[in-house]
Amino acid sequence: MDELVERVDDQDRVLGVVVSRRQAIREGWLHRVAVTVCRDEHGRILVHRRSEQLSRFPGLYEVVVGGAVDVGECYEQAAARELAEELGIRVLPCLLFTFINRSGLSPHWLGVHEAVVSDTVAADPDEVAWHGWLAD
């Protein structure tokens, strides 16, 4: 089943219109996405390779974990949910900034977060094929 998202305007205001994420992407409608950069207590950044089974960007490497903001969620709630689903991490990430990303699959508002996490990650193999820590 496809995720449900809320359409937003150019000022990131919710319009009260719920659509599937697939439809938002297909139609180029603005919606919200939340991502998190994970650091450990030593300042290393978590890097991961997406599972080959994923529909979006299979097998590619990333330094952020995230996904669509569900209906009724704020950016921080979505980021925390995605961390729990993908990495088994329970933490409330800190929102750093938001901006309109007009590239990629479709235009969307992107909420970028940071979280300090333990170096013990229980990645969901359906989402994450590999992960490791990148030092400065």
How would you summarize this macromolecular structure in one to three sentences?
With 136 residues, this protein is mostly beta strands. The protein is built from 2 helices and 9 strands; from the N terminus they run ββαββββαβββ.
Essential attributes:
three-stranded antiparallel beta sheet, 136 residues, four-stranded mixed beta sheet
Describe the protein in words:
It is a single chain. The protein has a four-stranded mixed β-sheet, with helices on one face. The protein has helices at 21-27, 75-87; strands spanning 4-8, 14-20, 32-39, 45-50, 61-62, 65-68, 94-101, 108-116, 128-134. Strand 7 and strand 8 form a beta hairpin. It is built from two helices and nine strands; from the N terminus they run ββαββββαβββ. It is globular and about 40 Å long. With 136 residues, the chain is mainly β.
Helix fraction, binned, reads: 10-25%
Order of helices and strands: EEHEEEEHEEE
Biggest beta-sheet profile? 4 strands, mixed
Which residues form runs of ≥5 with pLDDT under 50?
Answer: none
SSE order and pairing:
Layout (H helix, E strand, L loop, with lengths): L3 E5 L5 E7 H7 L4 E8 L5 E6 L10 E2 L2 E4 L6 H13 L6 E8 L6 E9 L11 E7 L2
Parallel strand pairs: 3-8
Antiparallel strand pairs: 1-2, 3-6, 4-5, 4-9, 7-8
